[in-house]
Amino acid sequence: MQKNNFFGFNRLVIKIGSALLINNDSTVNKAWLKSIANEINGLLSNKVEILIVSSGAVAIGCGIIGKKRTLMNLNELQAAAAMGQAQLVIEWQDALKGINVKAAQILLTPDDTENRKRFLNSKNTLQALLKLSVVPIINENDTVATDELRYGDNDRLAARVAQMVMADGLILLSDVDGLYESDPVLNKKAKHMPKIDSVTDDILIMAGSKESNFGSGGMLTKLHAAKIAMHAGCTTIISNGAQDKPISYLMDGGKCSVFKAKESPSIVRKQWLLGFLDTRGTLSLDKGAEEALNQGGSLLPVGLIEVLGNFERGDVVVITDKKGKEIGKGVTIYSSIEASLIRGCRSEAILQKLGYQGKAEIIHRDDMVLF
Ligand code: GLU
């Protein structure tokens, strides 16, 4: 079904910068928040799944403490983030309550997107929230992040989230309306770039050079984010959100820069799996399970007849038929020990076998490629 939005997105990450959400006196711009909540409502009623990456914790916290950001040391900034984040999520909850939608807070560190096991945990939680029609409100976990171990900007965090949930759209809303060939502040005739096919080194250098580092929110981090997202099959849009209806504006063909992904997220995922060589084990299936996979199903414990190798949750394993012929590859949700324990069981028996209620499938169909 063609979605009733200009870009046809099915799963969309919207990143909202502090400049849009937070007033100069460090309070939340409630009118803007209410307006974006209505825009989110429009998307949700068109069956677009929404995840929000919202900045603003540090700015709100500085206001509560009553001290300027520039005068604070790292620990004070982390304390500000802790106070501000609590307020930020309350504001989001209130705004979404107005459209009868529930919000959930997710705080991530780079470990949650770079470490395979934690990646899978974060991904599963986000997917469970989407299934419950809850809108995740995501931010960096600034209170524990240190300089060496942080994204530092929510543009790249949003791109990693998009990659994690296989979103097909990422909108970076800030106070710039996209990429220009030169600094539009210095050069009134600077040419706007509505469509970018690939984030080349030339484009990165252009945005990163001193004369043309135009976007106040940092055009360079936005371009890095677009590059990450495009490689994951996610089309990225940079647009100015400082207006009443920033999403409707975009859908009506408003000014922005579009970085169109060449492939869909599921094709990119499958290509990644096809090229993945460091597999850690093998799962052999019976005929019934093989047929279920061929019909687009996930790999369930009931059809598993043999588990070989030592692997952890999140590792890539080979899938074979019962004669040992390789038929595919996938990311396993269970370790080799767990998979052996639930081998041949119906999914309802997982709780009894493992002592906890795990996922019904061993490999989800989105995380699998068949040869
Ligand atoms: N995580 C920061 C905050 O909530 C914002 C980082 C950014 O704006 O990119 O204040």
Structure description:
The protein has 371 residues and is an alpha/beta fold. The chain has two domains: 3-265, 3-Layer(aba) Sandwich (Carbamate kinase); 276-370, Archaeosine Trna-guanine Transglycosylase, Chain: A, domain 4 (Roll). The chain is 39% helix and 18% strand. Helix 2 crosses helix 4 (74-97) and helix 8 packs antiparallel against helix 9 (219-231). The longest helix has 24 residues, at 74-97. It starts with 10 loop residues before the first strand and ends with a strand. Residues 17-18, 55-59, 139-140, 142, 153-154 line the site of glutamic acid (GLU). Glutamic acid binds at residues 17-18, 55-59, 139-140, 142, 153-154.
CATH uppermost class of the largest domain: Alpha Beta
Strand order of the largest sheet: 3-4-2-1-5-9-10-8
Residue share in helices? 25-40%
End-to-end Cα distance: 28 Å
Overall number of structural domains: 2
CATH superfamily of the largest domain: Acetylglutamate kinase-like
Named once each, the bound ligands are: glutamic acid
Helices, by number, come to 14
Query: What is the CATH T-level topology of the largest domain?
Result: Carbamate kinase
Beta-strand portion reads 15-25%
Structural class category: alpha/beta
